[in-house]
């Protein structure tokens, strides 16, 4: 049989999947196997994965694979039958959060979780107004895509949605500036006869360019939405499960207690499991007026996978590893600025890092085209990451939580080579 080429796969993909799907990199990558922080192509070449937070425990983690297989061989059904697995996992999940969050509900994707969160918020507040950041991503359902401007210019922002600037700066006034934006959005909603329902933010602002400092800056904005009768929804799909190192959940770095917390991607280490936790008083109106059912959300196999993820994070102290290795990596990335003028700020928390590339450090003019060249240059050197932010000039680095210092060294070494080759 003739060998299947990249061109063959691209043609087949276009024919079968249509035009809406997108691929990373100028030269698409075709992995066939994963193991820990590595992905492997058909030739057996290892590629360092510095991007996929979907697998916080690393690719093909044996404990998760075994938990899925074990449960699938016994029973897999839905939440309209009694099953201990969903209860055991809900208890463990809620124990990682403030006691005010007393209920858990499960879905299959983070998009579904955010969609459900807005339904709950609307039922509780009687409002429909939603506030998100200017380049946010929260999901792909109709109700959430209209509040996800990072999906692209052809995605129409909802009439009930208001956009605010991301909390840039990292100084003592960051929180006030962000809260001022939220208050202005609230006033605009009210001026148009719309009652605010929720402030929804990804607590590391990953699509906006990764903004994590100073810890605590969210408090004033949360107070503002509460004062307006709305709720605060913390989207933990990307920053959750110990990734920031400083806390198990990104919102904890800010000393706030959300009304609803949504989660997804890393929850099952690649298995499609997601969900939310919520204050019981916030869930009450929705629960009284609606029945919630999701055929696959909370099924026994998903709960087994999710429980195994918590086991491995706890037993291997991966939150601490994220803190230590993340700090080490961020320092080494910042040091590249001494040799490469294009390197701006290295920011983030734990193993969620954004490295800003600029054409002028004084003005912080974004190096958009250059960032694309760097991402593709790293792909040519077997290192996988991406770019984020409204100008796509921030290298987005969020490897599996099992990333070690030697992996950080390799990433920085290859990045140094790429920057030197491209820009001297």
TrEMBL record:
UniProt keyword ATP-binding present: no
Named cofactor requirement(s): pyridoxal 5'-phosphate
MF GO annotations: pyridoxal phosphate binding; transaminase activity
A Pfam family hit: Aminotran_3
Cited InterPro entries: Aminotrans_3, Aminotrans_3_PPA_site, PyrdxlP-dep_Trfase, PyrdxlP-dep_Trfase_major, PyrdxlP-dep_Trfase_small
Signal peptide: none
Keyword set, alphabetical order: Aminotransferase, Pyridoxal phosphate, Transferase
Assigned protein family: Belongs to the class-III pyridoxal-phosphate-dependent aminotransferase family.
Protein name, UniProt field: 4-aminobutyrate aminotransferase-like enzyme
Organism this protein belongs to: Pseudorhodoferax soli
Source lineage: Bacteria, Pseudomonadati, Pseudomonadota, Betaproteobacteria, Burkholderiales
């Amino acid at each position: 049989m003739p060998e299947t080429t990249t061109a063959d796969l691209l043609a087949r993909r276009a024919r079968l999947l249509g035009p809406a799907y997108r691929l990373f990199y100028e030269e698409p990558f075709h992995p066939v196997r994963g193991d820990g922080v590595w992905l492997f192509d058909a030739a057996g070449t290892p590629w360092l994965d510095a991007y996929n937070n979907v697998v916080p425990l690393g690719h093909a983690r044996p404990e998760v694979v075994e938990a899925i297989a074990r449960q699938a061989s016994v029973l897999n059904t839905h939440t309209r039958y009694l099953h201990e697995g969903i209860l055991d996992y809900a208890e463990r999940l809620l124990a990682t959060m403030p006691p005010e969050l007393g209920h858990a509900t499960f879905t299959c994707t983070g998009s579904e979780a955010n969609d459900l969160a807005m339904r709950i918020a609307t039922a509780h507040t009687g409002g429909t107004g939603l506030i998100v950041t200017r380049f946010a991503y929260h999901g792909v359902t109709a109700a959430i895509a209209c509040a996800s401007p990072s999906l692209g210019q052809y995605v129409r922002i909802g009439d009930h949605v208001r956009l605010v600037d991301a909390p840039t700066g990292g100084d003592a006034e960051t929180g006030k500036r962000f809260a001022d934006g939220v208050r202005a959005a609230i006033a605009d909603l009210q001026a148009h006869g719309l009652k605010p329902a929720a402030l929804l933010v990804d607590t590391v602002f990953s699509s906006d360019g990764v903004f994590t400092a100073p810890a605590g800056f969210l408090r004033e904005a949360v107070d503002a939405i509460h004062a307006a009768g709305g709720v605060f929804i913390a989207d933990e799909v990307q920053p959750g499960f110990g990734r920031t190192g400083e806390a198990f959940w990104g919102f904890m770095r800010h000393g706030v207690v959300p009304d609803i917390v949504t989660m997804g991607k890393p929850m099952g280490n690649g298995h499609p499991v997601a969900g939310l936790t919520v204050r019981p008083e916030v869930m009450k109106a929705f629960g009284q007026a609606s029945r919630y059912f999701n055929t696959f959300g909370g099924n026994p196999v998903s709960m087994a996978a999710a429980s195994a993820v918590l086991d491995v994070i706890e037993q291997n102290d991966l939150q601490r590893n994220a803190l230590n290795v993340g700090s080490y990596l961020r320092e080494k990335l910042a040091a590249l600025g001494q040799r490469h003028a294009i390197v701006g700020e290295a920011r983030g928390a734990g193993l969620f890092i954004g490295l800003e590339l600029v054409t002028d450090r004084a003005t912080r003019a974004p190096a958009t085209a250059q960032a694309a060249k760097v991402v593709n240059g790293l792909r040519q050197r077997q290192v996988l990451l991406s770019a984020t932010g409204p100008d796509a000039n921030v290298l987005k680095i969020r490897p599996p939580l099992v990333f070690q210092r030697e992996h950080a060294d390799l990433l920085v070494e290859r990045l140094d080579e790429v920057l030197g080759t491209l820009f001297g």
